[in-house]
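BUG: 3D viewer hangs when loading the predicted structure for this chain

Environment: internal workstation, default settings.
Expected: structure renders.
Actual: progress bar stalls at 90%.

Input used:
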Amino acid sequence: MYYVYILHSEKDKKLYIGFTSNLKKRLIQHKNGEVNSTSKRLPVNLIYFECYLKKQDAERNESYYKTSKGKEDLRKKLKSLLGP
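Structure tokens produced before the viewer hung:
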């Protein structure tokens, strides 16, 4: 399985979008400050993830969520969590 996941930083209130084949291990790395992109933004919390059978599908959706349109779609999906 391959995963696209969204983390929310409690420090700066921003989202981090990532992709992995081992979600549990990757989350531990983030929480331990082992990932450069989030190490200065701790604590972070997993707020959303999607599973894919094909690596290409996960990579494509990770890239999409990093676009303006993708971020807009994510905010709609997560509106009750993130607010207006």
